[in-house]
Amino acid sequence: MSELRERRIWLMNYREFQDAIEDTDLAILPLGVCEAHGPHLPLGTDLLIAEWLSLKVAERVNALVAPPLYYGVAVGLSGYLGTITISDSILESLVYEILSELSSNGFDRVIIMNGHGGSGQVSGISKAIRKAWLNLRLKAAMVMWWDLAREVTEELFGGSGGHAGVDETAMVLAIDKSLVKSIEENEIYTLRSGIQAIPLPGSILAYDGKFVRELPEHGRAVEFAERLIERIVSELSKVLEGWDRQES
To answer: Quick check: 32 and 68 in contact, CB under 8 A?
Structure first.
């Protein structure tokens, strides 16, 4: 399996998949949304990052990558054209059905590489993986990469990320720097306790006063991405080892 050249299930034929599934019971499912990410990042930023991370991590943990899901819960930014949102209940049902099909195709464990941190998104996925365990005995975990990257963000960039912030921008720069344009200051909105607006009045969201407002350097962005991969693999290894002990 270490010599496997293609890990994306949708690019295999069924015989190639049949051979691949004999050597691993682990799948990674990339999830994101299509939503505004300022004037400097693509609408598909969340999925772009999730799919790229899934491929990189799959090589380290011997997993196959399931077809990605571009649709999710993005109500807050639905005031901007290009944002496409579904309800959290629909996302829950959809993710559960996908997990069920992955189970029937031979996977016993699934990692969901979630690219979007909205509360409706996280809630829908959490309910789906809980239901998959109770009904199917399918083990699943959700990765929220921006939380795992928080210390690296502060160390490399001197502050915090946010929606369309320095952490997401660094990831897109590392993946394809041609996709990154200029940040516009008037697009930045700082979320504060005591006031809530729907839809949100900014497409770049700061969560605190440490928000970094400048584009990162490309070299620093690549370093950020590499260190994030190492952190994700480290944390997932602990989960997978724990699951293995349950089976012994």
So the answer is: yes
Q: Which two tokens stand for residue 209?
A: 């006063």
* 92: CB partners within 8 A, 6+ apart: 123, 124, 125, 127, 128, 131
Q: What is the pLDDT of residue 176?
A: 98
Whether 121 contacts 73, CB under 8 Å: yes
Q: What is the reported pLDDT for 247? A: 77
Tell me the whole-structure pTM to 2 decimals. Answer: 0.96
pLDDT at 59: 96
99-123 residues labelled b (16+ CB within 10 A) or e (exposed):
bbebbeeebbbbbbbbbbebebbbe
- The pLDDT value given to residue 5: 80
Q: In what order do the strands lie in the sheet with 162-163?
A: 162-163, 204-206, 188-190
Rounded mean pLDDT of the chain?
96
Q: Which residue ranges make up each domain of the chain? A: 9-247
Q: Which fold has domain 9-247?
A: Rossmann fold (3.40.50)
